[in-house]
Task: structure prediction
Amino acid sequence: MPTFQVTQLRLAKGLIDFGVGQPDPALLPLTALRQAATHRLAKDDPSLLAYGAEQGNEYFRIALAEFLTKNYGTPVEPGELFVTPGVSQGLDLVCTLFSQPGDTILVEEPTYFLALRIFADHQLKVIGLPTDDQGLIIEALEEKLAEVKPAFLYTIPTFHNPAAVTLPASRRQQLVQLSQQHGFLIVADEVYHLLAFSGRPPAPLSRYVETGTVLSLGSFSKILAPGLRLGWIQAGPMIVDRLVHSGLLDSGGGLNPFTSAIVRSVIELGLQQEHLKQLKVVYQQRASTLARLLRQHLAEAASFREPSGGFFIWLDLHDGIDAAALLPLARQHKVSFQPGVSFSSSQGLGNYARLCFAYYDSPQLEEGVNRLARALSEYL
Amino acid sequence: MPTFQVTQLRLAKGLIDFGVGQPDPALLPLTALRQAATHRLAKDDPSLLAYGAEQGNEYFRIALAEFLTKNYGTPVEPGELFVTPGVSQGLDLVCTLFSQPGDTILVEEPTYFLALRIFADHQLKVIGLPTDDQGLIIEALEEKLAEVKPAFLYTIPTFHNPAAVTLPASRRQQLVQLSQQHGFLIVADEVYHLLAFSGRPPAPLSRYVETGTVLSLGSFSKILAPGLRLGWIQAGPMIVDRLVHSGLLDSGGGLNPFTSAIVRSVIELGLQQEHLKQLKVVYQQRASTLARLLRQHLAEAASFREPSGGFFIWLDLHDGIDAAALLPLARQHKVSFQPGVSFSSSQGLGNYARLCFAYYDSPQLEEGVNRLARALSEYL
Result:
């Protein structure tokens, strides 16, 4: 039987690619979706097949708001939620509606490399702001704001991709204050927020949506399944209103009525909560396994922060090791990663590498780190 | 039980709104979707939950290409198809990638009013070209091309929305020749093409995608269910390549893997062909009913072309009747429509009104026309 391309991933045979930022296919909840689809489609209600409400099906938003309220630990109102077909399309819509080609936007250095691609398609001028082990440095932002008026600031406040840092509550407050003083929008990519291994991170930036300068992007891609193309924007009434009354929504209606109706059942049947619980256990194990292996085999060549949630470890390579130069050698050893330079808006971060622990199980993580260690010892 | 907003439509109680351009909820194929979802999700393949191939799942594109080849009567290759979440989002992506704010684009006068909204969000300068009862007047386009270089021309060649006209084969050829001579893109909205009441319209503009200047938008919204948010772009390799390598696709992967996997089963089980056949019978009946009623009750006040496919009748109101002025009176009589001015890029077409025959059954069509006749007699 010939095989055809059905997923985004095209991994070379035998390659262990720590660069993949996707859930392990073995963790995709096919049974839950089967159960939810049966539950939803058994009802005699064809409304999920009609053009949907622009803001998203209201029953779905009620279920989602309840789920978020419980898991964020801060109240989320259904009226603050706008349903999207995932964060990438949400971000694309935000660029269309809240920026113009040529506008300046601010991002963290490092930042999510594929967001940079979306900004490039919208011809935005991207300025990277320095970060430390607590995320965005607020003083650096303040200095930059004296020079430029950005259309928006794109930030990943919790379990940062790639840096795995989390912005403390105090910096979140300062950030929101600055957005109000200087009149710019904060576009917070909060897709890893729900993936804390234990306890709760500082409240998401979404708790500040009432200020009108914060827009929070959420998604089912990391907590349920990316193939659903289902996410949300949480924002205050003026921003929700602009989204709902965009030309795109006026024409096509709600952005994912059929899938959101099925995911409503996933939530209402308790399957989302159950799956999230399971994911946290698995990801915590994988993160601690990868961290342990890196300490054992790469301690001299690299250091990193122990992750407390999310998908990634951000390796700081020592002794002038250049990740992009290491990559071809690593690939000869059938292991790969994302070199730091991809996450830079100014061609920097050459001595960093992003490793994802979510995609592989322990034996594969071990084999991958062994290969990486061999590649490194050849490189040095 | 409180009712929450679940669909795009908010019809006032008792109102018959000929302005609605949507399928009748009674015609939404819930049973087919139930059957297809069960069929697809019973398989032990979680790939539909992973990030999908950027161009769209290849098995789905093979099934769709076969369906289109049969129903268009012209060959369609899976490699020419790029899966979208519906025409509105396809059009939005086309604007982002193939135009810049301030660019001029050409449309027909009249044109699809909600496309105008999407163009406005992208800050495009829209110029309307005159049409006759065979659609776009090619000589007028040629004259305009001597003055302006458009980013693209947006056209609805078959069963035009709202004008219900179809561009003959000879004009299609001339149009494509002009796009090659002048180097502009034709963005063909072909969503009504498959809804011919009998026989086949001239081959879709998609047959010219090999030229590289034609991009054809298709959708399941009119032939299956709009709530699926599933459509496609058919185009030549260079355009498909640009779409596949956009930032949006790089980040989020394929645009609707879960739903397209289920619709693949709809096609493979023969349910799409069956549903399309049924829709054509119903829409033909409704179109001929509405046309008969209009001839009976409005013959003196308006004229129109008998539709041979699609969703709409385009009323040409006589004696200086202004549709926008008639509208409040009509609404008092609990009937509504889309006034012609909505479809104009230059505030013209005041004496036209678009009536949709797809949404209502015969008794409702009859009641609606009676009310419209009463409103008109009061207006005159």
Notes: Chain A touches chain B through 75 residues (CB under 8 Å). The two ends of chain A are 44 Å apart (CA to CA). Residues 271-298 of chain A form the longest helix (28 residues). DSSP finds twelve helices and 14 strands in chain A.
